[in-house]
Design brief:
- This is DoxX protein.
- It holds the Pfam family DoxX.
- It is a multi-pass membrane protein.
- It contains six helices and no strands.
- By secondary structure, the chain is an all-alpha fold.
- The chain has one domain.
- The chain is globular.
């Protein structure tokens, strides 16, 4: 289980670190998009803060995964971003859905492998 956790954590960290660094340092021309995804993308760009915020969260969580520090916190922080990735892929770009599902499964696996750290979140006081 430790080896599998290390592999999944490293892959997730590399994915998030690479995608965030490429967003900030190697801006490439966006692929031509059409339909609903184009409207969604225009809205993201118009907001001016949402993509840098999401990519900053991805960077910090990717770094955390690669370093093996604060992994429990990174799993929780990145979870809403991953859910959004899966939903965008499901509704707007279904051909990318397997990537989103793979990342979601990786995050769920990491949560499961660190479950002892999360038990306190679900205790009832009283």
């Amino acid at each position: 289980m430790k080896i599998a956790t290390l592999i999944v954590r490293t892959l997730m960290g590399a994915i998030f670190l690479c995608t965030s660094l490429s967003y900030f340092f190697m801006p490439s021309p966006e692929p031509v998009s059409t339909g609903d995804f184009k409207a969604f993308q225009v809205g993201l760009i118009a907001s001016t803060y949402l993509m840098p915020l999401a990519k900053s969260v991805e960077f910090l969580c990717g770094l955390s995964f690669l370093l093996g520090k604060f992994t429990t916190l990174a799993n929780i922080v990145i979870f809403p971003v991953i859910i959004n990735i899966v939903l965008i892929n499901y509704f707007l770009t279904p051909n990318n859905l397997p990537i989103g599902i793979g990342i979601l499964l990786g995050n769920i696996f990491l949560i499961y492998s660190h479950w002892e750290n999360y038990k306190g979140l679900f205790k009832m006081n009283g």
